[in-house]
Input
Amino acid sequence: MTVTERKLRIGVLGCGQISQAAHFEACRKAGNAELYAICDLAEDLVAKMGAIHEPTATYTSYDLMLADPNVEAVIVGVADQYHVAMALQALAAGKHVLVEKPLGVSIEECASLQSAVTTSSLVLQVGTMKRFDPGIAFARKFIAEDMGEMLALKAWYCDSTYRYVMTDNLQPIVVSSTAARRPAGNPKAVRERYYLLGHGSHLIDTARFLGGEIVAVRARLIQKFDAYCWFVEVAFASGAVGHLDLTIAVRMDWHEGFQIYGEHGSVIGKTYNPWYFRGSDVECFSSRDGQYHRVLGADAHFYKLQVEGFADTILSGAPMWGANVDDGTDAIRALVAIARSTKSGDWVRLDQVEGEIS
Ligand SMILES: NC(=O)c1ccc[n+]([C@@H]2O[C@H](COP(=O)([O-])OP(=O)(O)OC[C@H]3O[C@@H](n4cnc5c(N)ncnc54)[C@H](O)[C@@H]3O)[C@@H](O)[C@H]2O)c1
Output
């Protein structure tokens, strides 16, 4: 993080689960940002979170928060279906945006956001915070600087049936409200779509962050005994081959990680349930020096590091380490292509898909 003289004033939209568990604390702990404002349509949530986190301003109207000239940037922490509309509104009001993952729910709406970001001079970052996991960041640097050409990448993201046993102990007690605004119907009802958007977005972002652009996928989906398993063959633009495993949920501990084979070395990573705030165990073997290399990554508050990275880009012009609007859009393309491929059984090119996951 570049040392700057002042803190970015952030307004958080949404006082729901992710803001309570991550964003409020992240903004308060960040060295270069402050939790200036919070906003939710649910007045009770705003009152309770205002009492705990003591932001300078509280709002029950997004329009009013955006009209506050002191708010320089917003975190969009609302349901996936609202991300693009809320992000567009923030950009139109001249605010920088950190928008939760997935960037949106359709390729077209993400493309509209791409255009809006391009024509603005504002920063938009996507909340795939695993890029700020110090182990994954270490792997990325090793791949870029030491590993040479990539031959193959395997990555897996397997949620555990015991997930809530763990997270309920780790997260603060999350307050809910009957006045909270959620999309009509139940977005979680079609579980294939919900799992791809909610969990697959992390897996794809990690695969792209470490392996580069994905050009085509061929996927199978097996659904048995309340479990969903996607095995995805991946063609990377580099010519490397990939295999992704998204399984919700495995009857074991949280199981997430990656293996990468390269010209001058290899990488093996084990990632923990994020709410432990523990950096991935990553070993990078370099055939140049015959040594394994690893990082401790003591500070693994991904959400805080994500806010600091975002603020650093805005305040100091530092290169964006997080996912940008193109990364977010390409991730949605990959997820739509995976969904299409499970139906046809064929390879699907990412540049030939449109619409949303169906
Ligand atoms: N990065 C991660 O690891 C991670 C983890 C969990 C959730 N998420 C993402 O976070 C997002 C939010 O999830 P959540 O579980 O916190 O949702 P939630 O429904 O619990 O909370 C969202 C809140 O936003 C408010 N809201 C919605 N529209 C509003 C508007 N126009 N004006 C004011 N307030 C509004 C709602 O009233 C609600 O209180 C989702 O996109 C989800 O995918 C990310």
